[in-house]
Each structure stands twice: as C-alpha cells, then as structure tokens.
Design brief:
The protein is an all-beta fold. The protein has one domain (5-167). It has strands at 5-7, 10-14, 21-30, 43-50, 67-69, 74-79, 82-88, 94-97, 120-125, 146-148, 161-167. Strands 4-3-6-7-11 form a five-stranded antiparallel sheet, with no helix packed on it. A hairpin with a 2-residue loop joins strand 6 (74-79) and strand 7 (82-88). The protein is globular and about 45 Å long. The chain starts with a strand and ends with a strand. This is Beta-galactosidase. It comes from termite gut metagenome. GO terms for molecular function: carbohydrate binding; catalytic activity.
Length: 168
Amino acid sequence: FDVAGLYNHIGVTFDFPDSNVKSVKWLGNGPYRVWKNRMKGVTFGIWEKEYNNTVTGESWVYPELKGFYSNLFAADLIAVDGTLKIVVASEDLFLHLFTPGKPVQSTNVNTLGVFPDGQISILNAISPVGTKFSKAAEHGPQSQPNVLVSSSHADPLSGKFYLKFEPN
C-alpha cells in the first residue's frame, strides 16, 4: 500500500497516562519544546524536568513539559510505578511528550498545533504552529504539512528505537 500524502505528524504513538509521571530526563535538544517551524532556541544536552501541566499564558512554570522535543537520543520517563526508558538508534527523530492543554482565554486554535492521539510518540515529522493572529499555513514553506511521497519515488521513512519499562 502507498501512504503518500500530506500529514501533520509522521511516526509511532503509544498510550502512557501522564497522571503518574513525576519527571523526565533526556539526551537531546532542550530545555524547550519545538515545532516544525520553530526549531531554533534549543541546545543539545542532558535535560531534566519535573512534571508540570503548564498551559502557555496561564502559568509561569517554565519550561513546559508537554510538547515535541527534537534530536532525541534517549529519555527516561520517571513515573510513580517505574521508569520508561527510550533509546533511539536513528538520527533526527522527535519525542512527543503528552499534549498541552488549550488556554482558557484562547479565541482560536492557531497556537495549539496538532498532536498525535497517543500520549508518547517517536516521530519522523512534527506539526507547525501558528501565531495569535494567523494559522501556521500562512507562514511559509516550513509551516506547511509534511509531505510523504510515494515509496516508488523515494526511500521510505524509517527509524529504530527501543522501549523498556523498569518497574520500581
């Protein structure tokens, strides 16, 4: 089958409830989340964050935990009942950690981005984000949906990663 087309995000997603999450520690770009059209401002390193449910504009607990992270190599998601370990063996993959909430006072969805249905994802491509006044698609080529071309015309997307849950 051929999956050529336009996509907001491309990858694999999992269910992992955030209700028991205490913190995350990762090797990759941080400490801030990124979007397809907003990749600057992060630095490669080892980062650690306590769980927070910050909604931009409603709280001053920064940096936010929920969102997309670039250049992932490894991550430990520490939960009450154990640690989910993620090791990435491919370059240029993104980590999706849960989905940020919508600001109560928001009058549009331009700044929300589009996230996978699951709570944790390893992705080849992520969605762009708009501004308070305009949609993402109005901001040039980096703000367009991701294009997946026919497998007969290009190498298929791929990626390798490992998951291990270590109970307490």
